[in-house]
């Protein structure tokens, strides 16, 4: 293995203004909101209205600043998570009542315990695999609120903390159930403090894809799965039994996660041939993310073994390199992954060649 670049570029981070990134795309909720059954349409409309107001109130992109905070100088054994879970009790006031904090006894509420465990699993992957000390690389406390709103059918990162709805019980279950949902939303925070990708168009799709990638890796790491053992699904177990679908998204086969009378059909493309041009969903950030998602899946399965070890390392190096502009498109990101693979593993290495092949498979030219 070649030595790392001797002078890596410092990563950059934004002023920590709040952002709003939710796991369930607006187009999914929009389909449900038009259902004839009010038990389905009412919670979906309420969730859509809530999310739209949050996006209006919050800045979605933030200003680039100087170097990201360096990891605090402390022995590895002292770098521990600082988790706090709150209960909103079906209200929309944050953070809510504190119900569990670091090293306290488990709650009688399984939702609280799942949120607590998910925060810990995310912290563990970033620290153990990538030597990243929490979301900001400086020990940021991890806060989460559960039981948010009435029949709130989403989970989101607001720039400061995680928030989980209980779902409507008809289409969506409790949003703390899939651990990759927790990892996905917290990774929006990592992106906020590193690449700071604008949440629109291709840069927004990359923002969403990075969250899917690392959300999946967090699940795989916890299960000890190799790339060929993983299901590569995002949000598996979130749908109730009445839904014809297995997850919100599939990285292995974008466009196949669900096909349901109420939800509609999964619109994600796997390649640039089917790229979706739309003005909704911030330019299709949850739709076209299927393309870089599939590129990562191709890379991970080409390299084999544990996806977090080489494929994940290349993606993490890219996200934290400081080489990406905030409006980076797919081609720019692909070039950056090529450079990251060369810097870590060498030009012409198996890893570098696999990166080039993976982007070729989805129709993105590296250059």
Write the layout of secondary structure elements.
Blueprint: E1 12-14, E2 21-22, H1 26-33, H2 38-57, E3 64-67, E4 83-87, E5 97-101, H3 110-130, E6 142-146, E7 155-157, E8 162-164, H4 179-193, H5 201-223, E9 233-234, E10 249-250, E11 259-260, E12 264-265, H6 281-284, H7 290-303, H8 311-319, H9 330-345, H10 350-361
Parallel strand pairs: 4-6, 6-8
Antiparallel strand pairs: 1-3, 2-7, 4-5, 7-8, 9-10, 11-12
Describe the overall structure:
Its cofactor is Zn(2+). InterPro entries: Metalloprotease_M4, Peptidase_M4, Peptidase_M4/M1_CTD_sf, Peptidase_M4_C_domain, Peptidase_M4_domain. Extracellular zinc metalloprotease. 39% of the residues lie in helices and 10% in strands. By secondary structure, it is an alpha+beta fold. The N terminus is likely disordered. The strands form four sheets. It has a six-stranded mixed β-sheet with strand order 2-7-8-6-4-5, with helices on one face. The protein has a two-stranded antiparallel ribbon with strand order 1-3.
């Amino acid at each position: 293995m070649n030595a790392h670049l001797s002078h890596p570029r410092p990563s950059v981070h934004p002023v920590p203004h709040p952002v709003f990134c939710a796991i369930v795309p607006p187009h999914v909720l929009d389909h449900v909101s038009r259902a004839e059954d009010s038990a389905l349409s009412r919670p979906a409309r309420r969730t859509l209205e809530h999310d739209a107001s949050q996006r209006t109130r919050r800045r979605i992109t933030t200003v680039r600043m100087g170097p990201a905070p360096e990891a605090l100088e402390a022995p590895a054994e002292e770098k521990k998570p600082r988790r706090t879970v709150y209960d909103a009790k079906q209200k929309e006031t944050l953070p809510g009542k504190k119900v569990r904090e670091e090293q306290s006894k488990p709650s009688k509420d399984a939702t609280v315990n799942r949120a607590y465990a998910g925060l810990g699993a995310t912290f563990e992957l970033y620290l153990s695999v990538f030597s990243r000390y929490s979301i900001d690389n400086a020990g940021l406390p991890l806060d989460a609120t559960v039981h948010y709103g009435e029949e709130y059918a989403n989970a989101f990162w607001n720039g400061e903390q995680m928030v989980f709805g209980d779902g409507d019980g008809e289409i969506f279950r409790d949003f703390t159930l899939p651990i990759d949902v927790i990892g996905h939303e917290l990774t929006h925070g990592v992106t906020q403090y590193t690449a700071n990708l604008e949440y629109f168009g291709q840069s927004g799709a990359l923002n969403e894809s990075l969250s899917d990638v690392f959300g999946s890796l967090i699940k795989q790491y916890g299960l000890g799965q190799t790339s060929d053992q993983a299901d590569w699904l995002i949000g598996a177990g979130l749908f109730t039994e009445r839904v014809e679908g297995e997850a919100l998204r599939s990285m292995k086969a974008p466009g196949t996660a669900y096909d349901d009378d109420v939800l509609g059909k999964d619109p994600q493309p796997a390649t640039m041939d089917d790229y979706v041009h739309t003005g909704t969903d911030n330019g299709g950030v949850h739709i076209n993310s299927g393309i870089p998602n599939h590129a990562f899946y191709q890379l991970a399965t080409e390299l084999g073994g544990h996806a977090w070890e080489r494929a994940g390392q290349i993606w993490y190096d890219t996200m934290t390199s400081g080489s990406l502009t905030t409006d980076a498109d797919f081609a720019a990101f692909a070039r950056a992954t090529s450079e990251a693979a060369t810097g870590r593993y060498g030009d012409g290495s198996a890893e570098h060649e696999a990166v080039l092949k993976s982007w070729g498979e989805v129709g993105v030219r590296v250059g």
